[in-house]
Predict the 3D structure of the following.
Amino acid sequence: MKFLLTVLFASLLVLNSRNVDAACGYKACPTTKSNMINVHLVPHSHDDVGWLKTVDQYYYGSRNSIQRAGVEQILDSVIQELLKNSNRRFIQVESAFFFKWYETQTATVKSNVKKLIENGQFEFTGGAWSMNDEAAVHYQSVIDQFTVGLKMLSDTFGTCARPRIGWQIDPFGHSREMASIFAQMGYDGEFFARLDWVERSQRFLNLTGEMVWKASADLGERSELFTGILYNHYSAPPGFCFDTLCSDDPIIDGNSVDYNVKEKVDAFIAYINSLAKYYRATHLLVPMGDDFNYENAVMNFKNMDKLIKYVNERQAVGIKINVFYSTPSCYLNAVHESKLTWPNKTQDFFPYSSDWHTYWTGYFSSRPTQKRFERDGNHFLQVTKQLTTLANFTDAATTSNLNKLRQVMGVMQHHDAITGTEKQHVSNDYDRMMTESLLTAQKNTQLALQKLTNLTNGEFSICLQLNVSVCEFTNTSANNLVVTLYNPLAHDSVQYVRVPVPVINDNYEVTNAAGQLIRSQLVPVPKEVTALNPTSNTNKQELVFEAYVDKIANYYIKTKPKPRSFANHPKNLNGLMDKTAEYINVENRADTIIQNSLVKLTFGSTGHLINVQMNGVSEAIRQDFYYYKGAAGNNAEFKNRSSGAYIFRPNGTEVLIATSVSLSIYEGQNVKEVHQRFNDWISQVIRIYDGVNRVEFEWLVGPIPIQDNIGKEVITRFSSSLNSKGIFYTDSNGRETMQRTRNGREYFKPNLTETISSNYYPITSLIALQNEQKRIALLNDRAQGGTSVKDGVLELMLHRRLLRDDAFGVGEALNETQYGKGLIARGKVYLILSQVNQKPAYNERLAQQQIHLPFWKFFSNASKATNKVVPKLPTFMSLPLTIHLLTLEPYSTTERLLRLESFMSRNETTSITFNIRKIFDSLGGEEIRETTLDGNMALESMKRFKFQPDGGNASKVEYYTSKHVPLSAKKKDVDSKFNVIFDPMQIRTFIIKWK
């Protein structure tokens, strides 16, 4: 026993000594050999943060009848095996799962994990809260979830835990904006597996499977990123999966009749020699893992140890292959040092097709209500972060409340969450998590508003069902109601506010905080909406008023039995009292015209919109609803694969919903509304607001009928006579705009057996087309799929109800129900018609911001008001109009994160110089420093790999550093130290230390 203790103690001394001397990062990378093929084995486990099982079911390993998977057991097993052999490596990607595990570990395990990180054995790759989707996500949410994951890694383990590589191996297509985000965070490269199968084949044949992605038309080298495509998906080589989930034979090297070392080594060498033909460098990245692998890490590592040993022994007989444990970052470091040149990439990798009849474009629109709920979650997260900051909350409780919402929003970015590609019970669990986190975060906003307004005991309730005109706070009465509006944008804004109110005999009046009467108007809630949940919705009408908000503003609603005199009011409001919008009977109609000072709409005799006039432009635009039939057939038959959660595969041409539409028109001074009914399951309200230069279309679709046993995918289509020459434009994750060419791709000629779905693209915020004179843009309120099927035509997919699975793993049809019926979805699309020569992008981008982050409404009883002096809030009014407040949040107990962006492209603006001293002072700043995009690395420390394009000079190893001098200043410094320059589309992140 004494001898055993001595040996153990000596082993611990060796382990500790090794870690003291070891260096993390690239310094810890294994040694490679020249004149050989260096094979970087990368042990990994791809762990979905929800898909077939919920987050907790995956973590704990429950419900294995659905899928064998337990992340807790994976991490337990992997850490134990890494400690046995200092050469072994493993990469961890999802911070959500890691920290769920780490927080329950003993001090000894935590110490061992830290040592493994410091010597490079356990390396974080990606590092965000989840491996996010790249089609349906908004860039603000992506940046947020990387900030959360990377900060927890930094706070827990220091700089050794900072990832250097993006590992986006499972998302279903890849966006240019995502690559740009990686570059702006200081990452050296990214790797992924999924791209169009035709392009994949061509790239490997042409040695272009690794490239320099020029991921921004505006940011130049700031967004250039080395990007590599994995050869065999993200799986181990065929025959070499050594996990319990696999059926491949292990390496048998003992005294056994089943001895297979020669057979295994020969097969592996043959695979490597074949693989080497498709890559330029003498280094190969070979993933060793797959979905939820390594529950039994002993089996994995023991066999990889053997594989490394026996393959490398062949070097003695002239085999030029060197195999070792590695990581994606060490692989890229070796490639960088190889001093080669690489092809360029400028567009994105959408749409993704995996075979002749399979375009993964259905998930752009799957689960539309969940996609909208995620947007609401982001909206409230920004509000909560800002209010928590403005109220100077740093205590543990409010920090915990905020972190819960931050982390749940990180989960929602996962590529089987926001995509809508999970099982129904998992979708329900996502909704549960979202609801609980929103209600928890509400505690912060309530406390903050009680501190920052004169409603010291205000309820500040939030209503999460305003999209269907339901608010429990106003259900029985809207008298003596205070609507507190919070504006998360940098600049003051004027927006119309809608509040559901009960039908009463009295009228309503709205006043601002100064007691001035505000023009208001009552409009009826469409009966199709009130019928959604008649037992809980007594609000049959909405009160509409125009509100001005800098940051926070209170508006007061009262009932009044008698009309109020306006004679002594400082403004001439005669006739502007609240009143019900006038109903106009349009039976037996010819053309019907609805207009205000900015917009004129014409509806034809069939009830359809047929013409729009605005911004000095008139165009015959017709709006219709159609549906595509989901392809029927046996999923086992390749050519009859159905539309499903992932796949859009229509069976034939689209079907027009209605040739004639019933109309009801309500006209008032604030808003004019046209209520349309297309059939029993599609209706719509078209609105034009006074002083607002866009048209709002609020659609309601469902329950989609399936009595004919045919699934349906519903679209709205806007048709015009514009000759757009096969060109249209879409946003990339809500940010830069990309040009699309119908039936065209950047690198290859696509397979077009599915002519509609092959032209569908993800629309996060905008799709547009134009000719030389006119431009039509559609803006949406959630992620959707869209296209231009022919010149002058734009369409967006609104809702999908399908009866068959598409055979890509989810195992059930996308057939959402509620209250025993098909799910009903409601949402908004906005139309802007403009002149091309007037550079309409500015107005479109401002509209995008207001749609994405409008005023948030809080509700309180007016009796909770006091005469308290309201504290002065920080102001952002000194920012130029083209600078957006992207993030304001607590960073630590003594620091705040401020993230600003220029939202105009280089075609629309030039560099802007301004001074942020006023903002710094108003936030109580003592010091300010600039970081990379994620906020977790000093920008002056950023040094990332630069790769030369083909035709360039690769004679030396080069790096990117910051193109500008990072801002660093203290309160005592002169004002000029706070000058900043923003190039078009540039985002800059600052950490402000405050008292």
In short: Confidence is low (pLDDT under 50) at residues 1-21, 563-578, 633-638. The chain has 17 helices and 54 strands. The domain at 883-994 is CATH 2.60.40.1360 (Immunoglobulin-like).
